[in-house]
Amino acid sequence: MNNTIDFNRFSLLVKRQWVENKKLFLMASVIILGSIIGLYGFNLDIIIGNLFNAKSRIIFSIGVFFLVGTFFTNYILKDFSNKNDSTSFLLIPAPHFDKLLSSLLYIFIVFPIVYLLFFYLIDFSFVNIGNNIMSNYDGKVM
pTM score, two decimals? Predict the structure, then answer.
């Protein structure tokens, strides 16, 4: 076995990690999506369409990103927490650097893209809903 990076072997490691964890990744995506929608819905004043301000939304997005990212990273690197799992992970016929890169690909590239895509799609939707409600608001409280 060669210790240089082989892109075919690396792509197989990435596919292996996806196949083993795809249900968890999809379930985590739904949970992230639902929690962001829930928090935005909770903070939207339905009567007048007010949404918490832009500075608070940015702080909220960064805080949730780090919180959810911590749990996601912990799960990706779970193979090293149990002796049986770490042994099977270490016995995969690939260099440790390739294994590390496949984990880092999901942690630093895939997760941020998915999270930011979900967050800004929801943010855009709720800002449009709030603007639409505000455009129809004439100052009367129901």
Answer: 0.79
